[in-house]
Amino acid sequence: MHIIADENIPLVQEFFSELGSIETLPGREMTSEQIKQADILLVRSITEVNAKLLEGTQVRFVATATIGCDHIDQEYLKSKEIGFANAPGCNANSVVEYVLSVLTLLADQEGFQLQDKTIGIIGAGNVGGLLQQRLESLGINVLVNDPPRAEREGAEGFVTLDELLAQADVISMHTPLIRTGEHPTLHLLNQTRIEALKPETILINTGRGAAIDTAALKERLQVKNDLFTVLDVWESEPNIDHELLELVDIATPHIAGYSLDGKLGGTEMVYLAVCDYFGLPVRKKLGQLMPEPPLRKLSYSSRADQWYAILTAVRACYDVRNDDMALRRAFSRAARNGQSTGEAFDLLRRNYPVRREFDTLKIQLKTSQKKIAAQLEKYGFGTKLG
Ligand SMILES: NC(=O)c1ccc[n+]([C@@H]2O[C@H](COP(=O)([O-])OP(=O)(O)OC[C@H]3O[C@@H](n4cnc5c(N)ncnc54)[C@H](O)[C@@H]3O)[C@@H](O)[C@H]2O)c1
Ligand SMILES: O=C(O)[C@H](O)[C@H](O)COP(=O)(O)O
């Protein structure tokens, strides 16, 4: 079998080489001509997979090593009996840790306690649901809006979008991009809803950029400048709106799900899906291909304060400010040199540094610090007393 894969799918050779020949290509520019001879096409979210790409090829199976599928024309695939898989939940924990990094940073900077805030989650699937669990275990009040789930499971435990927007101090968006149907998310936060946001609301979007109307958000920020905004995803990536970038407080290049753990999990999931589809034995396991690196250790004995321990641990693992700075620097450099900022956006994503998840950091504490250990564990860190 001939397999064509996006060049940014880690361990693709290691997982797939026994199944056939592998060719890797830049995902943004993949053409029908290039993939003509492929039996299997492995993509990430930057490749539009539709009739234009697949017509005239012999592709029999498409897999995306991502959670989101809005770049795939699944109806077309069905009509041509081409198999399909994505990687549900593969990087959910990474996104949750991104949000925790944002929240702890803001609480520290602005001097508030997370337990005093109401956090509204829009879209409570793998990512939003995990975030809800993590926040509730920390004693934070959470409101959830997810109409498809509310219809299936009953309204209890859910609020309407307008209730959430009116009550939440922090809004975290985790919806897929859905353009049609009963519950579309395209410009879910439209002008009216953006205007209705309470002053000082913290708005975080790690779902898909087009769930927010960029023009309306820009207008609110330009006219009132009274929101705190955190955007990881943008309309028209990689050619994002420069004025909006200047206006938001934390700006990152769609890397919330980019922990190494999340990316490799995505590769493993699509490998398993290919084996299943073609009835092939599963011969590779992530653990064999990438033995766990030794746990990193952090000693925490200097201060008895719980909050300081949390900040230290979160920052040691993932500090969102580094990604914000990298994006702004890359854009200034590109503008100075007359280069495309779209390319700079993609380059940052392609060369993203290794980021490990919270459970790979073990925090050594004194036996007297049991309470701190318990709190750190709720964030997902490993701890060791004594
Ligand atoms: N920034 C990143 O790096 C990153 C990483 C992973 C996923 N994502 C994005 O996050 C999205 C969500 O991921 P997930 O794993 O939780 O997906 P999921 O499919 O498990 O959950 C999505 C949830 O959104 C709900 N939903 C659908 N329409 C809605 C609407 N109109 N209003 C409110 N809720 C609605 C669904 O019912 C579902 O519960 C993905 O589709 C992807 O686009 C981004
Ligand atoms: O949907 C997803 O899984 C995420 O948005 C993922 O992080 C996207 O990464 P990309 O495919 O753009 O590299």
UniProtKB/TrEMBL annotation:
Residue intervals of the Erythronate-4-phosphate dehydrogenase dimerisation domain: 289-378
Q: Name one GO molecular function term.
A: hydroxypyruvate reductase [NAD(P)H] activity
Q: Where in the cell is it found?
A: Cytoplasm
- SUPFAM superfamilies named among the record's database cross-references: Formate/glycerate dehydrogenase catalytic domain-like, NAD(P)-binding Rossmann-fold domains
Asked if the Swiss-Prot or TrEMBL record annotates the protein with the keyword Oxidoreductase, the reply is: yes
What's the catalysed reaction?
4-phospho-D-erythronate + NAD(+) = (R)-3-hydroxy-2-oxo-4-phosphooxybutanoate + NADH + H(+)
One Pfam family linked to the record: 2-Hacid_dh
Q: Please state the protein's primary subcellular location.
A: cytoplasm
Q: In which pathway does it act?
A: Cofactor biosynthesis; pyridoxine 5'-phosphate biosynthesis; pyridoxine 5'-phosphate from D-erythrose 4-phosphate: step 2/5
Q: Where is the D-isomer specific 2-hydroxyacid dehydrogenase catalytic domain?
A: 15-277
Coiled-coil stretches noted in the UniProt entry, renumbered to this chain: none
Q: What class of enzyme is it?
A: oxidoreductase
What Gene Ontology cellular component terms go with this record? Answer: cytosol
Q: What EC number(s) would the UniProt record show?
A: 1.1.1.290
D-isomer specific 2-hydroxyacid dehydrogenase NAD-binding domain residues: 109-256
Q: Which UniProt keywords apply?
A: Cytoplasm, NAD, Oxidoreductase, Pyridoxine biosynthesis
Organism domain of life: Bacteria
**Residues holding substrate:** 45, 66, 258
Is Endoplasmic reticulum included in the keywords of this UniProt record?
no
Q: Which HAMAP family match?
A: PdxB
| The protein's assembly and partners | Homodimer.
**How is this protein named in the record?**
Erythronate-4-phosphate dehydrogenase
What is the originating organism of this protein? Oceanospirillum multiglobuliferum
Gene, per the UniProt record: pdxB
